Structure formats: structure tokens, C-alpha cells
Amino acid sequence: MHRRVLILAPHADDGELGCGGTAAKFVEEGREVHMAVFSLAEKSVPPPFPRDALLGELSKAADVLGIPRGNLHVFRFEVRDFPSQRQAILEEIVGLRDRLAPDLVFVPSLSDIHQDHQVVAREGLRAFKRQTVLGFEEPWNNIIFETRAFVVLEERHVDRKVAALACYETQRARSYLDESFIRSLARTRGTQLESRCAEAFEVLRLILP
Description:
The protein is an alpha/beta fold. It has one domain: 3-Layer(aba) Sandwich (Rossmann fold), CATH 3.40.50. It has six helices and seven strands, in the order E-H-E-H-E-H-E-H-E-E-H-H-E. Helix 1 crosses helix 5, helix 2 runs antiparallel to helix 5 and helix 3 packs across helix 4 (115-127). The longest helix has 15 residues, at 14-28. The N and C termini lie close together (10 Å).
């Protein structure tokens, strides 16, 4: 069993969207879950919210999922500017690797078309050569997504995911935060397994003991 898990989220809410149900399940099972967020996207926060609103929302969402605040690792890279900061981002990821020594890492899908997500996915895969690396889906950004790995969820895990995402009041207008979408995607992935609910992932690197 993977005991120490690291989620690499380009922006606040990406980790919850891509693997929030899985994080809730792993915390429940007693695994150590960390989440690294590389941008609080201050430029994207709509008025009248304060520009630093996402930091508070991220903290509240982590509380809902059961991730200790000490396991949140927040960086302040400029949103939509990750390609020009690729090396600095890689160095932060390597620092996380060396400090935390996770055995399972989640990154965005390699087919994600958002420029920030592409950088985190590729630099994460580059840094973690000795760890299993799974890519999470965000369908609005994925042209292609291969569902090769699954985490079976109970309804309570999906409930936690929904509740965590509800903490992001600044992002409420986003269509992908709609509760019916979140639940229907979990049901779709569960149906692929003849199960009730699941989250699906790409297998980017699989390390077998």
C-alpha cells in the first residue's frame, strides 16, 4: 500500500477536482496525504473578493478532506505563466520529493491543454523517476484521457469532494464546479468498474515492489 501520497496541483482547486474523492478515502485509511499548490491565481480572483481569497478557500477545502494544514505546500507562481518559470517549478518539485519521499504522486494529465497544468505534469514526471505517478483528469482541459487506473469510492468520499469544492466561493461560476457534474463523473467512472463511484487516472509511471 502506498503510505505517503503527494498531489501536485497547479492551482488551488485542481487537486480537489482531479482527486478529491481519492484524497478523502486515503486520509480515512490512515495514509499521509500532502498537497502542493503552485499558484493561488490572484489575477483570476473576481471582484469583490480579496486577491488572496483562494488561500483561505484552499485551507478550508483541505480541512474538509482531512488533509492537515501542515501538509499543504503553497507556492506563489504567477497563473498562466508557468512555462517561463519551468526550471524554478522543477526545483520546488524536487525539493518536495527530497523532503517528503512520497511513494505515490498525482499530477495533471499529460494531455491537459492548460499551459500551467502541462508544466506541472511534465516536471512532476521528470522529477519522480522512482515513484508511481498517476495523471488526474479535468475533462474541460483534456482532449484525450486514458482511464487506466481507478480508485473505487464510497458516496461519502464523493460527498467530501463536493463539500471541499463548495469552499471555493470565488470559483462558483465555473461550470466544472457544478455538483451534478462532479457526481455524474464519479458515477461514470464507477460504472466502468461495475461499481457505484470512482475516480480514474492515467498511468504515467508504475513502480511495482
